[in-house]
């Protein structure tokens, strides 16, 4: 029995030592478990000694009680090592599971970071503005770079603001009400709403919104689309349409009104010719004529709006015209100086001389009024080439007109070209609207840039003319035989007197059919008319357009001057295409009549 107990004790100890060695791999504690395994092996060696002694002749018998205790101790050691091994197995399994969970979390965090970076990059690169605000208090919590650039604020500045602060004061009440509707799920789209930039400028946006919830908080995500340029284009189109409507009203009375003006002009000038130079009535006639000039200027401005009241173009050296116009206005303005900078090869433009002069007249007067304490007007120009939609090059003359005045407030700068809009207590509000209309009808473009307190700059683009030379004015003293046709009897009599005062003979007709008859009879008699002056439209008869073909068929070289006070007909702007040689717009004075006759007759002074 004692041998069995001793053998079991040795086996238990050997097994415990082997298991201890295995724990080195499990726990990684080499020195600890090698020491325990060595101790267990020494205990085995210790058990072998009594076993060896028991087999010797004089050996002592095995102590059964001691070996029983030793066996129990060995068994306890074996069980302890087994338990420790099991504990380390569980700990190792738990460690592996923990490491796997940690790795999984790392992968998840990495994916979340990549996803966040991807969406952040998308938000940052998207061209539309994105703004996120809290539904409860309208506080802004997120803004992408596009909306920051649009509004001129940094992300940090926007996060310190609320949604109503992004809009002008007069719109805040509406914005608050609209925001509350959006929180309720109503009105997800707001169109053409003004936003106030950090620099005080206005940008118009379309806003599309959606509600969403995150971490028990409600938010509104807003997508901002900048529609400022679209709005400007729409306003520009609306402005042009308004001008055309106004023009149609003005043009409706233009014909009769200008006939009356021509009659008054002509009679004043005839009266002046009939009176001696020292007659006291001449002064009153001069004042009356000056008053008529101012009235005609206002009428001319109104008629500029007319749909067909386009320019009557001629080749004009623009630099000379600008300097003459501006310098004449500044003659009495001692505290305002003008500087001009034009290139040596400055292209001429094909433009209506009077209308173009009117543009720079209005701009100069505005500049003078903006600088009551004096200042400088800087006018420069350059030749520019622009590419159209079909990549075809178009040549323009660019004129920059700047002053050092008080500038235009930002809240009205978009309205300055509207008809009858004015900030002056006394004024008609036609100046800049006329400027806009003239430039538009010359197929040009005008832009304004103004900063309060720092002045205003107008930039004008006008199409350059082909390689042509300016037309020089000519007058004539040669006696001509002229046929004048108009349905207004008073105007016919006056025109005959004006022509006679210029040294010409005159025959009149009241409508086109009569004029053709007189023209034919003159040919039969051998008295050829040098020039025909014919009204475009007449009442109860044929106008110049109706009979020009018949006249040119009879005598192709006939010079016919087209006259009209009703500028809405395209014949006025394209008179050459219809066979007319010149145009004479009512109301006209003696000098203008003489100039047109001289051009048609192609005779210089002294011939």
How does this model look, in words?
The protein has helices at 2-27, 30-55, 64-125, 145-151, 155-159, 172-183, 228-274, 281-304, 318-329, 353-370, 431-441, 489-501, 512-525, 544-554, 590-601; strands at residues 129-134, 140-143, 189-196, 202-214, 217-226, 314-316, 336-341, 349-351, 375-387, 393-403, 445-451, 455-463, 481-485, 505-509, 531-535, 559-564, 582-585. The chain has 607 residues and is an alpha/beta fold. It folds into four domains: 2-106, no CATH class; 126-226, PAS domain (Beta-Lactamase), CATH 3.30.450; 239-292 and 472-607, Response regulator (Rossmann fold), CATH 3.40.50.2300; 318-463, Heat Shock Protein 90. The protein has a five-stranded antiparallel β-sheet with strand order 2-1-5-4-3, sandwiched between helices. Helix 13 (512-525) runs parallel beside helix 14. The N and C termini lie far apart (164 Å). Residues 425-429, 467-476 and 603-607 have low confidence and may be disordered.
What key phrases describe this protein's structure?
607 residues; Rossmann fold; alpha/beta; Beta-Lactamase; 17 strands; rod-shaped
Brief write-up:
Strands 2-1-5-4-3 form a 5-stranded antiparallel β-sheet, sandwiched between helices. With 607 residues, it is of the alpha/beta class.
Secondary structure topology:
Layout (H helix, E strand, L loop, with lengths): L1 H26 L2 H26 L8 H62 L3 E6 L5 E4 L1 H7 L3 H5 L12 H12 L5 E8 L5 E13 L2 E10 L1 H47 L6 H24 L9 E3 L1 H12 L6 E6 L7 E3 L1 H18 L4 E13 L5 E11 L27 H11 L3 E7 L3 E9 L17 E5 L3 H13 L3 E5 L2 H14 L5 E5 L8 H11 L4 E6 L17 E4 L4 H12 L6
Parallel strand pairs: 7-9, 13-14, 13-15, 15-16, 16-17
Antiparallel strand pairs: 1-2, 1-5, 3-4, 4-5, 6-8, 9-10, 10-12, 11-12
Helix pairs in contact: 1-2, 1-3, 7-8, 7-12, 9-10, 10-11, 13-14
């Amino acid at each position: 029995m004692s041998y069995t107990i001793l053998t079991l004790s040795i086996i238990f100890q050997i097994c415990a030592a082997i298991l201890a060695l295995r724990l080195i791999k499990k726990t990684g504690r080499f020195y600890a478990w090698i020491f325990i395994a060595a101790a267990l092996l020494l205990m085995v060696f210790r058990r072998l000694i009594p076993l060896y002694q028991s087999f010797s002749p004089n050996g002592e018998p095995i102590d059964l009680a001691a070996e029983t205790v030793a066996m129990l101790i060995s068994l306890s050691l074996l069980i302890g090592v087994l338990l420790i091994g099991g504990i380390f197995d569980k700990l190792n399994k738990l460690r592996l599971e923990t490491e796997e969970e940690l790795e999984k979390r790392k992968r998840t965090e990495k994916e979340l970071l990549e996803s966040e970076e991807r969406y952040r990059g998308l938000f940052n690169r998207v061209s539309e503005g994105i703004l996120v605000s809290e539904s409860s208090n309208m506080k802004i919590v997120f803004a992408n770079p596009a909306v920051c650039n649009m509004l001129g604020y940094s992300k940090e500045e926007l996060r310190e603001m609320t949604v109503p602060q992004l809009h002008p004061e007069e719109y805040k009440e509406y914005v608050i009400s609209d925001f509350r509707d959006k929180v309720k799920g109503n009105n997800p789209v707001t169109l053409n709403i003004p936003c106030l930039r950090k620099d005080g400028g206005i940008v118009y946006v379309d806003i599309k919104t959606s509600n969403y919830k995150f971490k028990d908080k409600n938010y509104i995500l807003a997508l901002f689309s900048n529609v400022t340029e679209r709005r400007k284009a729409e306003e520009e189109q609306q402005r042009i349409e308004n001008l055309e409507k106004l023009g149609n009203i003005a043009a409706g009375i233009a014909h009769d009104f200008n006939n009356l003006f021509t009659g008054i002009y002509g009679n004043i000038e005839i009266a002046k010719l009939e009176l001696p130079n020292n007659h006291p009535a001449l002064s009153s006639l001069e004042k009356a004529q000056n008053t008529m000039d101012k009235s005609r200027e206002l009428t001319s401005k109104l008629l500029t709006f007319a749909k067909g009241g386009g320019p009557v173009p001629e080749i004009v050296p623009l630099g000379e015209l600008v300097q003459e116009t501006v310098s004449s206005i500044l003659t009495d303005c001692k505290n305002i100086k003008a500087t001009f900078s034009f290139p040596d090869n400055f292209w001429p433009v094909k433009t209506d001389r009077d209308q173009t002069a009117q543009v720079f007249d209005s701009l100069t007067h505005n500049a003078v009024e903006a600088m009551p304490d004096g200042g400088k007007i800087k006018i420069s120009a350059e030749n520019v080439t622009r590419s159209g939609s079909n990549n075809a090059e178009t040549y323009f003359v660019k004129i920059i007109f700047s002053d050092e005045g008080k500038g235009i407030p930002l809240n009205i700068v978009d309205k300055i070209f509207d008809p009858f809009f004015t900030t002056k207590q006394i004024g008609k509000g036609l100046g800049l609207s006329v400027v806009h209309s003239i430039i538009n009808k010359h197929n040009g473009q005008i832009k304004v840039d103004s900063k309060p307190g720092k002045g205003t700059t107008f930039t004008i683009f006008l199409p350059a003319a082909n390689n042509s030379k300016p037309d020089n004015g000519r007058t004539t003293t040669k006696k001509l035989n002229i046929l004048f046709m108009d349905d207004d009897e008073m105007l016919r009599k006056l025109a005959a007197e004006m022509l006679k005062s210029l040294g010409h003979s005159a025959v009149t007709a009241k409508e086109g059919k009569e004029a053709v008859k007189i023209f034919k009879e003159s040919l039969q008699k051998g008295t050829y008319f040098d020039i025909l002056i014919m009204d475009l439209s007449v009442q109860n008869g044929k106008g110049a357009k109706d009979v020009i073909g018949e006249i040119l068929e009879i005598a192709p070289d006939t010079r016919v001057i087209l006259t009209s006070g009703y500028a809405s007909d395209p014949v006025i702007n394209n008179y050459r295409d219809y066979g007319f040689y010149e145009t004479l717009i009512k109301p006209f004075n003696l000098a203008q009549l003489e100039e047109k006759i001289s051009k048609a007759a192609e005779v210089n002074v002294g011939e």
